[in-house]
Amino acid sequence: MVAINGKDYAAAGKNLSSVLTEMKYDFRTIAVEINEEIVSKQFYEETILNDGDVVEVVSFVGGG
Amino acid sequence: MMVSKDEYYQALVERHGIDNQKKFDKATVAICGLGGLGSNVAICLARVGIGRLILIDFDKVDVTNLHRQQYKISQVGMAKVDALRENLLEINPFITVETYRVKMDESNSIELIKDADIVCEAFDKPECKSMLTDIVFTNFKDKYLVSASGMAGFKSANDIVTKKLTSHFYISGDGVSDVNEGIGLVSSRVMTCAGHEAHMIIRLLIGENNP
Questions:
Q1: Is the CB of residue A36 less than 8 Å away from at least one CB of chain B?
Q2: Partners of residue A9 on adjacent β-strands
Q3: Structural domain boundaries in chain B
Q4: CB distance A31–B133 less than 8 Å?
Q5: Is residue A64 part of a domain?
Q6: Contact B190 A58 (CB under 8 A)
Q7: How would CATH label the architecture of B22-205?
Q8: A42 — contact with chain B (CB < 8 Å)?
Q9: Which one of A31, A37, A63 has the shortest CB-CB distance to B185?
Q10: B186/A contact by beta carbon, under 8 A
Q11: Residue A34 sits in which domain range?
């Protein structure tokens, strides 16, 4: 299982890009960390999620 | 009344301690975006005596900014970088303030932030916040990024918190109050969030890594 924002998903073996797309995230407004490391957007496609990974997706909102 | 550099410095040392003040003296912080967050963060950091501030913004001061941003009515129409520089140096003339009137993008950002120990994200658009996160951690694994998300509206100021997401990435805000959902920005709540960002930056500079 892969924990994404605190919930378990059967996402091990899938690539990050397809998982984020399935979850309907807008790539332009997020930051993703896996096991406390930020993943560069250029590596979303080639990053394969592993069993036990802890993923946090930050969705930025507007205002400043 | 004229205040000498020594008098000013002594006043800072008395509040912060000499060891901390020396860390502030040699610190460089880049502030990306000079709206409600960035202008308030800059004022906090200038008061603390951060040695070198890099201010980056493409915009001009507009009358619609005055309800929350640290500009004056006499500065409407000025470039924000110039107006803020003027205001900061009125508060603390003994720091270095570098200004860049540009819109940050993938091609110019690396050069603009390369000297900074800590990068402060203070944009208003979520796309820009996301872009800067990507640029910082793709190119500079050792820099700290202090960002903000969610500070619009009249909800409680107590909902604004700072979270540590990685060893080098912090976000202040409530995470959800989106200005694009028709709730306006209110000076006190934006200032609370800016205070969180500024305080995290100050803590990192003295070696405190927890929010």
A1: yes
A2: A2
A3: 22-205
A4: yes
A5: no
A6: no
A7: 3-Layer(aba) Sandwich (3.40)
A8: yes
A9: A63
A10: no
A11: 2-59
